[in-house]
Each structure stands twice: as structure tokens, then as C-alpha cells.
Amino acid sequence: MSTSPSKQMHLGAFLMSVGHHAAGWRFPGVDPANTMNFAYYKKLAQTAEAGKFDLIFFADRLAISDRFDNRFDTTVRYLAQARPEPISLLGALGAITDKIGLAATASTTYNEPFFLARAFATLDHLTGGRIAWNIVTSTNDGEALNFSKQEHLEHETRYGRAHEFLDVVTKLWDSWEDDALVLDKENGIYADPSKVHYLHHKGDWFGVRGPLNVTRPPQGHPVLIQAGSSDTGRDFAAQTAEVIFSSQPQIAAAREFRNDIHARVLKYGRTPDSIKILPGVMPIIGATQAEAEEKLRHLEDLVHPLGGLALLSDSMNHDLSVYSLDEPLPELENIRGNQSRYKLVQEMSKRDNLTLRQLGKRFGGSRSHRVVAGTAEQIADNFAEWFGSGACDGFNLMPAYLPESLTDFVEQVVPILQERGLFRREYEGDTLRQHLGLARPQNRFT
Ligand SMILES: Cc1cc2nc3c(=O)[nH]c(=O)nc-3n(C[C@H](O)[C@H](O)[C@H](O)COP(=O)(O)O)c2cc1C
């Protein structure tokens, strides 16, 4: 089923705080005060751009994690929890970069479509077409409580809302046709009203008249990213997404996932090359394999098990503080949070016979994403194998501790991938769609 992968892989840099690893902030050389420091983010963005990455990505949560023991004490004490609001951050980073794509998460559960359509359209204009939106439905009750709700919406309900949300946003982006601006100074005609459209949308969740008060974005639509992996999440992605972020630790499962998405994409009348699947991976680079493994061991030693369990409680939307740390993760029904991640974690827990304490340390590491420790050459080999076997269209790199993990990758691994013809040496286009080889969407009103 899988189409042969395009010749060159795509690379995203998923930048989180001062590192993805729960203990990244404690690692030697990391300045944990950087989480709110613009000079630091500027350096990261410019490093990724020097490495010709397709995009950098900032995730988002709308609450401090506090599902563990229903308090934030564990997370605030042990984890680097503070984070900048990512849409604002993209605006600042757009001004100091020229080519690299800029992606941010925004929730369809706790926003209004008009607001997000306008924000992302504006950013797309300001950056000359380099913006992407990671569409999420959010994860847990802590987020609901910050938005005047008592409980997070049920899984199916929030995907239902996401469908309608996205429909409204894309219509708003289309509400000005590309040639609506006339700009005829002589005759005093600014724009052609026949090319600007009301939506008159009235649905289950939203009533939006439109049109937007921002002209159509340079990319037509900013690039749409999705990361849900449940059956409903996959279907949503297959209908709407252009990039999929996934958590796929095993190559065979990653290939199956890609085949499954391609089958669903075809069912919805799209072609498999209209969607790029980028599984997450945390590379730990050493001068020798032994050095890389030592770094990983050191990082794992530094994770507080309760910190890792607090992150897992948050992801599952389920308080794990009530179970014994010396027993395995119990079999749980009706997980209301991230269902696909719970499945992965339960599989890992059984496979490796982990106690909850051990699982906390392990989950804190990469939050069940793939970790590869080795030399730059070995990491390049591993990426080549995954890419060449049709397991993915590229990778969403999750640097463990920053800025060093990103700099090492750009200086040591990227040149090897370029040498092998697997990754670009220069940007060929100007927009993120061009980097990713994605078509500019038709305007539905034209
Ligand atoms: C790489 C990656 C990044 C994600 N980023 C976010 C995020 O920023 N905010 C969020 O609420 N969820 C995020 N998620 C979670 C997904 O949006 C989704 O809720 C999750 O995969 C569970 O979906 P499912 O229940 O359909 O499996 C991310 C997932 C992945 C794999």
C-alpha cells in the first residue's frame, strides 16, 4: 500500500523548554533559566535554519500538569513546566528567520475558530508563508478548569468539535479570494466585494458569519498538522492533515501506521503524497556508542520517578498517585486523555516488566517516543533505514537537552544525511508548503 518515500526526508525540530527529556534541565551545560528567554529561542531557531530543517515546532498545554495526586506539587517541584505561549513566540521568531517553517499547537477545544483563523493567517502573512498549525483537541481536566469548564470533553465529542472548528477556519481563510484586492488608486477601488464572502456558518458548536478581516494567507491555508493516533484521531488526520506527528517506537508499527493512514487518505479522495508522516525521535549523540549510552544513562538517573508519573497522569487524564510504586501499571478502562499513548505505555510496561516507579523514569525520558543513542554515523544509518523502508516521510526531532542536542545534530548528523543525498543542502522554496512538497489549496469560493 505504501507509496515509495520521496527521495529526501523532511525534518522538524520539536523544541520543548530547555530539552525534551524530563531531566534535560538538569543536564550539564543546560541553563534551566532559558525557558522564557528570547535570545535562547532565537539561537535555537537559527541553528535549525542553518541545518535546513523544514520546520520548528512548539507544543502547548493550557495548564500546569496536576493530574497526579490532583495537585501541582510534583510537577512544579521536579519538572521545567513554564513555557511561552507558542503563537506569540512564532511571531517573534518569524522576524529573525527567513526560510524555516514555524509551527505551533492550538486547541480546538478551548479556542474560537475566528480568533485562531485570524492569528494564523496574520502570522502566515508576516512570515511570507512559513506557518503551520498543530491542531489538537487538548488532553485533560486541568485545561478545562482554566476555561470555565469542570471537565474535559469526551474523546469523540472533542473530535466532533474539531471537525467543525477546522471547517470554519479553512472557510475563513478562503473568505477573501486571492485576487480580491484591486488596489486601484486612480478609481479609488480598494477591493472587489464580489470576491469577499460571508460564511453564515451555523453548526453544532459555532455560529460564525465571517468574512475574516485578514486577506487570504500566502500559503492559501497555513500547513495543517495533526497528532492523534486513535481510530478517530487517524480518521480526522486522514481527512484534514498535511503533516502527521506520531509516536512510533518500532519500525514495523510505524510502517503499519503509515500504510493505515495512506489507506484512509485514499478513502477520503486524497493522495498519499498529500500527507507527510513524521514520527518523533530523540537522538542522543556521542563520539562513541558507549559515550552516547552513558549520556542516556545519566539523563535517566536524573529523572525523578514521580515527575515522570506526573507527566503520564496528565497525558492519560488519570491520577496514578493512588497505585503502588512497586507494582506494575494496572489495566485501566476508559482512559479519557491520550488513548494511543496509554496503549504504547501499557505495552512497554508489560514487555519490560516495569514497576510504576520504573515506568515513571522511563516515560519521563521521551514520553514513549523513540530514543536512539549512538554516534552521528549510527544515527544517520538509523534514519536512513526508517526512511528507506517506508516507515516515515522524515522525523520530528526531539532534542533531549538544549541547545546542545540540536547543535550536535545539525553539525554532525545533517552533513551525513546531506552527503548521502537524503536531506537538502539548501532550501529550494520560500514557503513551508514548498519545503514539504505540499500543494497550495484551492479556494472553495473561487
Ligand atoms: C509529537 C506530538 C505532539 C503533540 N503535541 C501536542 C500539544 O502540543 N498539545 C496537546 O494537547 N496534545 C499534543 N499531542 C497529542 C495529540 O494531539 C493527541 O491528543 C494525542 O496523540 C492523542 O490522540 P488520540 O487520543 O487520538 O490518540 C501531541 C502528540 C504528538 C505525537
From TrEMBL:
Residues 29-391 form the Luciferase-like domain. CDD domains: Nitrilotriacetate_monoxgenase. Keywords: Flavoprotein, FMN, Monooxygenase, Oxidoreductase. Pfam families: Bac_luciferase (PF00296). Gene3D superfamilies: Luciferase-like domain. It comes from the Bacteria. Belongs to the NtaA/SnaA/DszA monooxygenase family. This is LLM class flavin-dependent oxidoreductase. The lineage of its organism: Bacteria, Pseudomonadati, Pseudomonadota, Betaproteobacteria, Burkholderiales.
